[in-house]
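Q: I'm teaching a short session on how sequence maps to structure, and I want students to see two examples side by side rather than one. Could you give me a first protein with its sequence written out and its structure tokens following it? Keep the formatting plain so it prints cleanly on a handout.
A: Of course. Example one:
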Amino acid sequence: MRFRTSVAALGSALALASVAVPTAQAQGAPDGPQKVHSGVANGGKHLIVGANAPASFTVTFTVTDPNRVKRLGTHAYFGASSATASGWVNGRTTCTGPDTTKKCTVVFTVDPKVHLGNHNAGQWKIIANIQGSSPTAVERHVTTMNIKRATKMTVNASPEPVTKNKLLTITGKLTRANFDSLGYGTHANQTVALEFRPAGSDTYRVHTWSLKVDKNGVVQAGVKASHDGYWRFRYFGNATSGEATAQGDYVDVR
């Protein structure tokens, strides 16, 4: 596991200082008037991360305190709680507005080489550690962020060209980013759809909804060749894996 705390500088137009990783006393503390409102991560979209390249997402939220928001730090973690997290990333936070109401924007960058393993693809939690007029910072939930492993889908139709009404064999392979090996490996036993776009059309339509990828990530379908056009496979993803669509393979039917 390559996880380590990534210490990021915390910038602010109003010079809010960074609050450190929370202590056991501060985690989830119910006391304090500090509140977080309207937390949104990545515009509500999942973050798809490739095998070996960093990826970033933005979180926006508002913090209120009837007295003063003195210091604030924002963090993302994977696990049941921040105390037992198996993944942790600090954000770069910028906040503006009066002392009692801060509108904050945070940029998080996750790197498979540093922050991610296969086991912590899925839902991450975003928290803010806020210090108001009291000396103790409190932890507040901001929102969640789904980090998924990128997938790739290929397709090949043969023979090309094909005689009309003869059998056309369409083969594809589904692979998925492996954060442990920093490469792409088989994504086995998944369900994909076969889609067709006739020549002269801009729209793909589903030909077959449920085709099973085997243990090697390979899927194969046989169809009757009737019209010129493009064939492709499409994978719709799951809780830890992003979607993937193969580039269409054109077949000339003669």
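Q: Perfect. Now a second example for contrast.
A: Example two:
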Amino acid sequence: MSTPDAEAAAPVNVHPAQNPTDGPVHEWFSLSYSNYLVLHRTLMQSMPTDWQYRLRACLEELETAFAHIEQPEAFKVEAATVHEILELTTTQKTLLGITEDRFRGTTPPKGLTDDELREWEAQHEDPDGPVYHQDGSELEPTHRVLVPAGDPIPHYQRGRTYIAPRLPATTPS
């Protein structure tokens, strides 16, 4: 049985979704396939204190609501840039474990001269171009991958880094 205090504290669902998973968070992620939200600590610490309190309350509420669910011990997050495989350098392909198969899985016989090797390659090269593989999976040349990159946002430095946010002007009430 609910009490007036409990009802007053209960969040108001202004726009109920047909399916509980089709709500504002789903809409915020839009059509992306992102499975996580990564936020910079430096930027969050740079927001006004009242915003930080609201975020902290929401995060604590989320943590409490799913305390019964097993969670990963840690995550590995790194800044990256997005590239199609066709755009990658040989070094980037190597870094990402992407191999290029120009000869449909066949390899030339050993002991060929340079001329014989060029002839063999011309006969066996895939006319549709190379096939790319990563972790055993075949990838299309236009498949998009993440290449690790430097993070343009400075480290939080134990709370000392501050970046002034550009907040919309508010009018006094």
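Q: What should students look for in example two?
A: Point them to this: The CA atoms of residues 99 and 133 lie 5 Å apart. Also worth mentioning: Confidence is low (pLDDT under 50) at residues 1-8.
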